[in-house]
Design goal:
With 175 residues, this protein is of the alpha/beta class. Helices cover 32% and strands 29% of the residues.
């Protein structure tokens, strides 16, 4: 599927996250909305989707995912794909996602992780979230990374750290 996504799995991973969470149309925030592909997809499914990204565009607000300009508990769900890690402060982004989620709200996250799954569970719990599903997509991420290096000739050395744990799809709930 050509969905103009600059992330592993593209909209296929977005669909997988929606299925993991059994999420039906609701008010959802896309943290790090990038090209807007996921926002357009969510809207096509009937979601009341709002996007925030570091650059304002026709589909999203300009903002910092580590310090959102939204009222607490204003969303039923939050989606973030490949944005928490590159924000430079994964835990701050996670804390903000938890803050804007209503109680029982769903977090759908696809990203690179440098912590063990046990440590991730602890970090999520410390931020009021419980991981209900985790799917390791590291092999697909590796293919994406190799293709990106080949096509873009950029330095991706930080992704080859011995601390790399994987690329996961995570479904969590705000408790």
């Amino acid at each position: 599927m050509n969905d103009n996504c600059r992330r592993p799995g593209g909209l296929e991973f977005t669909k997988e996250l929606l299925n993991m969470a059994e999420l039906s149309p609701c008010r959802i925030l896309d943290m790090g909305s990038g090209s807007g592909a996921s926002l357009r997809f969510l809207k096509s499914l009937g979601f009341d989707a709002v996007g925030v990204d570091k650059k304002e565009s026709s589909h999203s607000f300009c903002g910092d995912i580590r310090a959102l300009d939204f009222v607490s508990e204003s969303f039923d769900a939050v989606l973030s794909e490949c944005s928490f890690f590159i924000s430079g402060d994964f835990e701050a982004a996670l804390k903000e996602a938890s803050r804007v989620l209503r109680s029982g709200g769903k977090l759908l996250l696809a990203d690179v992780f440098f912590e063990t799954t046990e440590k991730l569970e602890q970090i999520f719990e410390n931020n009021g979230l419980k991981i209900l599903g985790l799917c390791d997509k590291s092999p697909i991420w590796r293919e994406y990374l190799i293709r990106s290096i080949w096509e873009n000739d950029e330095d991706y050395s930080e992704y080859f750290s011995d601390k790399f744990e994987g690329y996961f799809l995570i479904f969590a709930e705000r408790v």
